[in-house]
Amino acid sequence: MTGYSQSEEDYLEALYIIGMENKVIRVKDVAQALNVKMPSVVSAIRSLSEKGLVEKERYGHIELTTEGELVAQDVYARHQMLYAFFHEILGLSPEVAEEDACRVEHYLSPETRERLMKMVEYVRACQEDEVRFLDRFMHYVHTGKRKGPCDGCKILKKE
After folding, report:
1. Which residue ranges make up each domain of the chain?
2. pLDDT digits (tens, 9 = 90+) for 86-119
C-alpha cells in the first residue's frame, strides 16, 4: 500500500491511463472512466491537489505532479501484474481478471507483489509453448483430477 486510500489510488490510476491515451485530462473523462459523477471527481481532484499529487487549473485540464505520476505508475504496474497473474497464470477470464486486479491492487504487501511479479516473469520467459505445471494445473482446475504424477512427485515417492 502506498499510504493513499483505495479511492485516491483509483483516481490517480485513472488520470494516468487517460493521460497515456489523451493529451488533455478533463474532469468529464475521469468521471466516465470511473463511472462517477463530475462533482465527485472535482472533490477528489481538490483533495489530490492539496496532497501535491495533481495540478488543476480552474475550468482547465488536470495534470499529475511528479509525485502523483510516481504513485499512479506504481498502482498501474500493480494492476497490470495482477491482471497478468489472474488471466495468464490462473486462467481466469479477462473480465474476472480485470475486476479482481482492481480490487486486490490496493492491498498487496511489497513482498507479495514482488513474488507475484517474479511468477509472471518466470512463466512468460519459459521457452516451451506451455509451462508444464500450468498445463497440469489447468487440467486439475477443469476436471478436479491430477494429470498423472509430475516429475517432482515421482522423485518424492522414490525417497
Report:
1. 6-71, 74-129, 130-159
2. 998 899 999 999 999 999 998 888 899 899 998 8
pLDDT in tens, 139-159: 888 888 887 766 666 555 565
Bridge partners, residue 25, by sequence? 62
pLDDT in tens, 44-72: 999 999 999 999 887 779 999 999 999 99
CATH of domain 74-129: 1.10.60
In this structure, the chain runs to a length of: 159
Q: How many CB atoms lie within 10 A of CB 40?
A: 15
Fold of 6-71: Arc Repressor Mutant, subunit A (1.10.10)
Nearest partner of 48 among 113, 2, 101, judged by Cα: 2
Of the chain, the end-to-end C-alpha distance in Å amounts to 43
- Find, among 81, 78, 64, the residue nearest to 19 by Cα: 64
CA dihedral 103, 109, 110, 112 (to 10 degrees): -80
**DSSP, res 146:** -
